[in-house]
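Hey, resending since the last one bounced:
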Amino acid sequence: MRVAIISGSVYGTAEEVARHAARQLQAAGLEAWHKPQMSLEELLAFGPEAFLVVTSTTGMGELPDNLLPLYGAIRDRLPGWHGLPAAVLALGDSSYDTFCAGGELVRELYAELGLREVVEMLRLDASETVTPESDAEPWLQAFAAALNG
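The structure tokens again:
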């Protein structure tokens, strides 16, 4: 199964977690593909059969700038991905009111696209973890299991 891993990062942490997720999913026998700042054309060319979005939250609860072009292109085009499996891994800081709001924006997009979340969104709190990559591993294993099901 081809899994597209899309990331939105301000300081690079979400990018690192996305790279780690790609390795984890590949180890679970999935064809995981991650390319920072991919275009919609590149994403469509990959032919995703499942999606994982790894994103932080910035500003007043917005998506990072590097994710906005792809997010906007998907919303404008609404590709025919209805029914495909998906998941969101959100990074944030619980000391902010907008904790993981970027992840919620992605979940809203999933609903518009008709994607089905196969595992509950993971919220990683920067004020509680210094190793988000390893903290995400059990959740990534559950996601891989849901896809391999």
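The beta strands are 2-8, 31-34, 50-55, 85-92, 116-117, 122-125.

Sorry for the duplicate.
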